[in-house]
Amino acid sequence: MSSREEVGGSMEPSRDLIGLSSEPLSIERVYSSAVSPSCGAVALFIGTTREHFEGRRVIRLEYEAYEPMVKSELSAVCRDIRSRWPMVKHICIQHRLGLVPVAEASVAIAISSPHRCEAQEAVGYCINALKASAPIWKKVIKSVCVWCVWCGVVCGVWRHSRIAFE
Amino acid sequence: MVMVTVLYFAKSAELTGHRSEVVPLPAATSSCQLWALLLELHPSLAALQDQVVLAVRQQYVALGDQALLLADGDEVAVVPPLSGG
């Protein structure tokens, strides 16, 4: 048995897995990307399409993204996370693009750490940072006539320029 | 003047009817001058006046006096309020 096998998962390099896909998200795959023998916790966040928006029934959401910049922004978020929680092992962030029907997942984040505190805190930070800085937009397709609206909610400050939108 | 690819997303794509276009722009400019030039091209973008930022070479830039240097082949994106996640 090699020394690498004896030491086990602690030898594996930490990884950041960031992906965009038009296919339905696999929560199992997101979890598997983060789990590690050196960690006792994987914290998960899954964002799903809600059936109501501003008092109207939602049929689905449509997402689009400035894809290369999503990758660079989320890589920066991962660096932030590792700076704040050095014990974090793996980070997996997957966002769906295109049509996302009600009750399906639009975003899944899995983060592992030796103990649960870091993973749980990092996941909460991660989704907030994604919403504040990743160039992704959702369009709400509602029932009743053809009124569709781009969701114009900005939930926080621009990470780089520190300008707040109300 | 340099040839820059301007990308439009979400509401800005609906307002302009474009996803992308190549536009001649001054090499030395500012973000608010850049925005003013885009408004001349597409007056309908005025609907986003108080909500938009730009992304120049994939870096966010607020509308203001910040000096910008552009080169041939650069990408500038019009970024309406984010709504990912």
Automatic annotation (TrEMBL), chain A:
InterPro entries, alphabetized: MoaE_sf, Mopterin_biosynth_MoaE
Transmembrane regions: none
A cellular-component GO term for this protein: molybdopterin synthase complex
Molecular function in Gene Ontology: molybdopterin synthase activity; nucleotide binding
Superkingdom: Eukaryota
GO biological process terms held by the UniProt record: Mo-molybdopterin cofactor biosynthetic process
Name of this chain's protein: Molybdopterin synthase catalytic subunit-like
Source species of the chain: Gadus morhua
UniProtKB/TrEMBL annotation, chain B:
Top-level division of the source organism's lineage: Eukaryota
Keyword Hydrolase: no
Protein's cellular compartments: Cytoplasm, Cytosol
InterPro entries: Beta-grasp_dom_sf (IPR012675), MOCS2A (IPR044672), MOCS2A_euk (IPR028887), Mopterin_synth/thiamin_S_b (IPR016155), ThiS/MoaD-like (IPR003749)
UniProt source species: Gadus morhua (Atlantic cod)
Note, other: This protein is produced by a bicistronic gene which also produces the large subunit (MOCS2B).
Biological role stated in the UniProt entry: Acts as a sulfur carrier required for molybdopterin biosynthesis. Component of the molybdopterin synthase complex that catalyzes the conversion of precursor Z into molybdopterin by mediating the incorporation of 2 sulfur atoms into precursor Z to generate a dithiolene group. In the complex, serves as sulfur donor by being thiocarboxylated (-COSH) at its C-terminus by MOCS3. After interaction with MOCS2B, the sulfur is then transferred to precursor Z to form molybdopterin.
Primary gene name: MOCS2
Protein family according to the UniProt entry: Belongs to the MoaD family. MOCS2A subfamily.
Protein name: Molybdopterin synthase sulfur carrier subunit
Pathway(s): Cofactor biosynthesis; molybdopterin biosynthesis
Keyword annotations from UniProtKB, A to Z: Cytoplasm, Molybdenum cofactor biosynthesis, Nucleotide-binding, Phosphoprotein
Modification Glycyl adenylate occurs at: 85
Post-translational modification: C-terminal thiocarboxylation occurs in 2 steps, it is first acyl-adenylated (-COAMP) via the hesA/moeB/thiF part of MOCS3, then thiocarboxylated (-COSH) via the rhodanese domain of MOCS3.
Record-linked Pfam families: ThiS
1-thioglycine modification, residue list: 85
Record text on subunit structure and interactions: Heterotetramer; composed of 2 small (MOCS2A) and 2 large (MOCS2B) subunits.
